[in-house]
Structure formats: C-alpha cells, structure tokens
Amino acid sequence: MIKLKHAVYALLGTALFYAGCSSKSEEAVQPNIANETITQASLKFTNQANSADTTSCTYTFLLDNNNNVTGVDSTQLTLKANSKYNCVVYMLDQTQSPVFVVSNEIKQRENYHLFFYQPTPIISAPVISNTSPYIPGTAVTPNLAPLNLSVVRTDLDTNNPPLQVGLTSVFTTGAASSGKLRWVLRHQPNAKNGTYAPGSSDLDVNFVTVIQ
Amino acid sequence: MFKIPTKLSLIIIFLPVLAHSQQLSSKKYSINGYVYDTNTKTPLQAATISEVGGSDNAITDKSGKYSLKANQGQMHLRCEYVGYYAIDTTIMVSGNIKVSFRLTPASQNLNEVTINSTATPHAELATLSTSILQGAALDQTRGLSLGDALKSVTGVTTFQTGPSIAKPVIHGLTGSRVLILNNGVALEAQQWGQEHAPEIDPFIANQIEVIKGADGIRYGADAIAGVISVNPKLLPTDTGTMDGEVNAVGMTNSRLGAFSAMFEGALGKKLPGLSYRLQGTFKRSGDVSTPNYLLGNTGLFESDFSAAVQYYHKNYGIEGYYSNFYTKIGIEFGTDVGSYSDLLSRISETVPITTYPFSYFIDRPYQTVDHSTAKIKGFYHITDSSKLEVQYAYQVNTRQEYEELSLSASLAPAIYLQIHTSTVDLNYEHKDGGGFSGSFGATGMNQGNVRLYGYLIPNFVDYDGGAYGIEKYRNGKWLFEAGARYDYRWLRAFAFDANAAKIDVTTTHYSGASTTLGSTYNFTDNLKLSANYSNAFRPPSVNELYIDGVHESLAEFEIGDANLKTEQANDFNLQLNYATHFLNIDLQGYYNHINNFIFEEPTGQFYHSQGGELLEFAYTQGNVNFRGIDLGITVKPLDSLEVISKTSLIYAWNETIHNYQIYTPPLRLQNGVNYHFGNFGPFKNFLIGADDIYVAKQYDVPPGYDFAPPPNAYNLIDAHVGFKLNINKTRADIDIAVNNLTNVAYKDYLDRFRYFADEPGRNIIFRLRVPFEILSNHNNNN
Fold first, then answer.
1. Residue A142 is part of which domain span?
2. Is residue A80 part of a domain?
3. Which 147-166 residues of chain A touch chain B by CB within 8 A?
4. Does any CB of chain A come closer than 8 Å to the CB of residue B351?
5. What is the pTM of this model?
6. Integer Cα distance of B748 and B570 in angstroms
7. Is residue A104 a part of any domain in this protein?
8. I want to staple B319 with a disulfide (CB 3.0 to 4.6 A). Which of A151, B226, B310, B628 is the partner?
9. What digits encode the pLDDT tens for the residues B250-298?
C-alpha cells in the first residue's frame, strides 16, 4: 500500500514537473549578430600625375545568415606602367545598419593594425624591415616574369616610436607586367612592432593585377 | 493426522530463518578498521568503538582491529581509549566500510581527528572501479581546478586549453562522455565545448569519487566513460554545535590567492535534526609563467558560494542546497588565430613572439561563466531496509565568450549561451534478508538553451526520461549484480537557416537501453577480483548535430551532421584489489568498444574566411576501441614510510579510419614517497613527500588530424612538506608544495595550447587550513 501511495506521488510530481517547464523562450530565435565582419574591402587609387585618373579594386565576401562566407567576388586591378599612385583603403561591414565603415574604425585603432601589400611573382626575396610592406616567406620565382610594382606605406600611428599603418600608401609601377597583389591586414593588439609576425590576419586576399 | 506435525515442523524450521533474516536486514553491513596512536602509529588494544545513541559497541583486539555491524544510513561513531582524546564522527553507511581511527594522547593538548576511510560510500555498482580522492590527498590539491585535482587518480588526466581550463578525461574520453555530479546533481552546462571547464568549486568537496567505466545504469545517457562525483561533507548531526573552517592558498606562479571559508552547525534542543552549512570561495590569479616567459592574459577570477540546510526526523529527512559558481578566465594572447597559416606560423615560432609583463588584468579574449544549482531532496525510510528518495534540481548556466575585437568597438560577447535544466530523480532502495539488495528509479529532465549574438549552436528544447533497476546478490564470497535501464530523449532544435533566413525546426528522438552485469569474488579478506560488463549509450550532443561555424582559436571550421546516431559503448572491466597493512594493489584492465563513436574528421577542404583559409572539419561516426590498464601500488615497509606507484596506460584504435584515435592520453607514471616524521617540537605530524611524474610521448596518432606532431616526453618532480601547528589551542594544517621543482619547460599532448606555448614552470604552493569550533556540545568534552 505504502509503495502504491508513493508511486502515485511520484507520478504526480513528474507530471507537475513536466507541466512546469514548458518554456517558450527557446523558440524565439534571436538573429545572429556578429561583433565584426568584413563584407567588402577596396583599394582606391589616384594617379599622382593626374588626379582625374582614378581606379580601384574591390573584394566582396558573400555571407549567409550565420555570417559564414559562402562566396567571394573580386575585381581586377589595372594600373598604368611607370606611374605613381596614391592608394587609400576602404572597407565596409554591410551586415550592420547603417553600413559600418570598417576602415574608419581601423584608423581609430591604428596602433593595433598593420597592412601588408605583396606583389607576386617576385624574382628575389624582399627586404624585410619594420617599414617594409612586404610579407616574409613569399615564394621567390626567378623563372617567372615579375610584377613590376613597389609599395611604400605613407602613414604613421601614435605608438612611441611611431610605426606605419598602411591605410594610405604609394604604389609605383614599372614596365608592363601582370601578376597578383596579396593584401593582408594584420591585427596585432599590444604586440605591434612593425613586422608581420605578431597577431593574426583580419583580411588576406589576392587581386589579379595588370600593369599596362 | 500426519499433516499437522509436518506443517508445525515447517514453521519451526522457518522461524529461526525468519528471525535470522530480520537481523541481517537491520544490521546488514560491517564496519571494521584499526585504532592507532596518532604519533607512534602503534595499534591500541581495548579501545572502544560505539554507536552514539545506539547499543552496539566493539573493543579492539591485540592488533587494534575492531568490527561492528551497522544499518544503512548515517551512523554516529565514537572511539574512546583511556588517556586519549575520544573521536566522534558521523559516517554514511551503504556498504561494508573500513574506518580507522588515530587517537591522540590526552597529555598533548591536541584535539587531533584523522579518519581514514577506505570505502565506496554510495557506489551503486559495486563491481565498477571506483577511486576516491579525500583526506590528505584531496587537501594537497586545494587551490587547483577540479580537472587538475583529479590527475592523481590512475586512468584520469585532463584535456586543457591553456593553464586555466582543464576538463577531466577518464580512460581517454572527456566532455559529454564524462558525467560530473555536484552534490548529487548531474552538472548540466555546455560540456561539449573543448574549452568549457566544469563549473564546480573543488573547495565544496570533502570527497571526490571517480567511477572509471561506463555507468549508464544509474546516471543515464552520457556516462559512457565514467562519473565524477563531487561530494560535500555530510552535514553535522551533533546537536548544539557550530564549527568553521578557513582555507587559504597562495601560489608563486601566477601569484594565485584563494580563500575559502565554511561555517556549519546543528541546532540544539529547540529544533534537533536541523543542520546547516554556508561556504564561500574567492580566487584570483594573474599571468602564468613558464620557465622562460610569461603567458599574457592567463589570469583568472572566481567567486563561489554554497548553502545547505537539512532536517532529519526519525525516518524521513529533507535537504535543500544552493550553489553558485562564477568565473572569468583570460585566454592567452596570440592564440586567437584567424587562419590556418597564422596557426602554422604560431607553431613554427614555438614560443610567443610578444612577451608581456605580469598582470592580474583580464583582457579580451576571455570567457565568463555563471552556474547556479538549486536542489531539494527528500528521503523516507519506508522500513528499516527500504528507502525512497526524491530529488528535484534546477540549474542555470550562462556562458559568455568575448573575442579579441579588431574592427569594432562593440562591448558585446561573441557568443552567449544560457542553458536551463530541471531534473527530477526518484530512487527506491531495498535490502532484504536473503542477500539481495537493489534500487529502482526513474529520472526526468527538461532542458532549454537560448543563444544570442554569434551563431555556434541553435536554441533547443530537450525532454529526457529514463527508468532503471539494479539488483545485487551477496552470497558468501560472491557478489553478483545486474541492472538495466531505458532512456528516451526528445530534442527539438530551432536553427536559424543560414541560407533561407528562416527558422528550421527539427525534432529528433533518441532512445536506448543500458545494461550491466558484474561479479566480485573475495578470495580472502585481502584479495578480491571483480568483473563487470556495462553497455551504455550517448545521443549526439547539439553541437555535433548542428554546429556550423568557426572554432575561434583552432583555425577550424566545424560542420555538424543532423543525422548522427547514438553512440553505444560496450565496456568490459576486470579489477583486482589486494590490501594488507603493508601492501595495497589496485589493478584495473578495461576494454571499451564504442560503436558509432562521434568524432571530427578533416574534410580536406578549406573554408575561405576574410582572414584567410581555415581547415574544414566535419562530424562523423565510426567504431573506436579503448584498451588500457590502471595500476596503483602502495608499499609501506615501515609505518612511517609509504611508497606509491601509479601507472596509466591506454591504447585507442579507430576501426573506421584504420588508425589511432586522436588525443589519446600517453603513458603516465607517477612514483612517490612519503615519510612521516611524527612530531618535531611544535610541529605535529610532520610529513615530507616527493613525486616523480613521467608522461611519455604519444606516438600513436592518426596522420592528418593534427596541426603539429605530439610533444616529447617529460618528467616532473613535485615535493611537499606538511605539518600541523597548535597556536592558542587552534590547530592549523600547513602544507608547502613545489610543483615542477626543476623548472622543466615542457608541452603536454592534451593541451590545445601546446601549439603556442610551454606549460607552467616551477610553482611553490602554500596551503593553510584552520578548522575551529564556535559552539560546542558540552556532552562531548571529556
């Protein structure tokens, strides 16, 4: 008898318990909000000899609703031979409303960021220093015609001593050639020293580049 | 004419049997042990051990040995000997138990209480291997995380993410395959994550029990590798007393400070049977240092609180418990890699290229976890030999992970997960005269998970139900046990469809049976052999089913599989125990074959994120077997000298990929020696000890599954000195330990941050424990 009584209590308790925990909050799915993402990254060029001569290249990331990259789209960079161009970085996060200008935020956090610009192919290893925009470890291919392009960063951050950033730079082209431009943004919180190694990459893309 | 005497004789035959069985059922278990002088370690003859409030008592023989019969349940024992301080203690009896007493001469003004108990207090399955960490061994882990504290148990190691996140690994398995009980409540958090450490304050425990082997019967799905049970001390029952204890721990490495305080008591005559405890812990540490450099941002903050209240009356009792655990853990700078090439360059650098000055400050990336548990439990002794228990528990776990931000000024976490869990457990235990005992029960669980910000796993609702029965039969030298269980899980996930921007509602059902069969044969009082076969299952966890995203610091893009089936473990265990005063051997051999084992496989594809390429890993299933041996030997050539040797050997093979199983712990050997000096003037119980820990290199790894080869073997030396001091009649236990005495730079295979940095260097640990009496029950003063 006593067992039966307890079994009844137990069943009642279990039923109450299940009734008590039918919560609905799990069904109201919140949208996915990432703190930061990059959907579009562009380089905008102005010929130093002719301010009306502008060009650009753009890399676009197609995202799904989980902010995972499902596809990419990139445009070709075409520059005139034997010219000097001023280059400006322009990056967007279009998942936010209004559209968030990532490059402005990078300017705010310039002491943590460093851009690298590596033309390929190259026929000899680039000089690596804390003012070089070239990427250590880039493959050297003496048998391939090189892309005749050199890059110098033109802006400084507020570290002491100041280090380069690369939001603005000057591209100098040589004879007509073709190849790729690898563009990397390094994120180096409390670690920036002008070199490539510290930190991690926020952006790492390649543009097909033609100098004509 | 003939029939009546026959019936009579039958009755006459039965009467004594019935009477005998009645006696057996009321005093079923034996308690035995030794009584020694705490200083000289000599056995004390003719000491009295009595049950307070009961009629039973025993007197020790020439060798100091005694034996008592006991009921199931709480038992208040008192050990007395002329010229010595008496010891009062309350033990929980649910099996044969060994309790030894060390008495202190009354001439010394020392109220020494040391209880040595080698028992399996509430092992539901007697034939599975159970290791218990308690007493001095547990005290020597104070200040460490739960995972690190358990490394001294053979067959147990940790899976780490840097120095502050450690998950316990039993027989090569971790995460949701190991069940963790916090004061009887199965910890329900985000266990699936590799960098999600168990949310338990080890200062709560006065005993940590580790069941090595599949124990699905009592605890349901998920316990396919084992169970870790963190048990607080039983609440005091001595009416009118109030006691306290303060623990303080300081460590030179990471400059850790931990402080824990506890008050407990039992009310007096006005409300006998009511007792309570309040306990809190505060812990803070800064950057950890390896032998050659500091690890930036490896600080930790923790604050924990627990409260318990219990009321016992005759044959029923009710108990309430609440605990809260909050932690904030810094994740080492430079480990938040954005791409595969970043990870490879970190590995090739071998040491952090940026070094940082020491700091307690915890910067991004970090994680915070808040875990609250509330439980209410009642029991009722229906008869002397049967008991009904009901427990309801509610848990809320909130985990927030903050990543390193590069391009935004957001204050929000990257990932926010909050899981609510209600559980109800019903258990009926019985013992009858004929050697049978067992338990039957039912469990229910409801879980809901809510996520915000970034996507990693979906929201879900889960209903679980299970029913089980376990029966034991003891006959002479034999013990047999068998059990069966059925579980059902209903899981509904609300995933945000990544492409169609709508909510995908998927409902899945899992069900499975668990069985166990075991036997123990006692060759002599000292030697026994046990064999156990257990079958247990684990449904796929929600991350294995639905994860779709970047694993922050591993340069992995993980893809779940919604069609995964349940894992099925077939675990065979054989263990041999030999225990005498001079030699103690525990040998366990196991073979755990898991069908449909869920693991991550590299797809060979790359995911192209903005920051570069990430390796794609997809969840898949296969058959894996784990084979191993755990061996523990303790030799006591002298009463004051103890030599301990522990060996854990494991071998895991994935039959589906025809290769080794990744992240299998390598061979681990731990050899130690302890010497008890006795008393040195004001220093009592002076103890000095040293351990040598050798961890081999893991050569058995599958190619292509890891980013770097396993690190080399390493050898560490730990040493410690412990003693008790009497200051103003207050006893203080002091322990000074040095871990990694020779400051060896090493990496551990089971630490995910071995890609980035070495393990911690030399660490000097100071531990102080001061138990004190606030109110005393004057009846006990002799």
1. 35-211
2. yes
3. none
4. no
5. 0.84
6. 29
7. yes
8. B310
9. 999 999 999 999 999 998 877 888 999 999 999 999 999 999 999 999 9
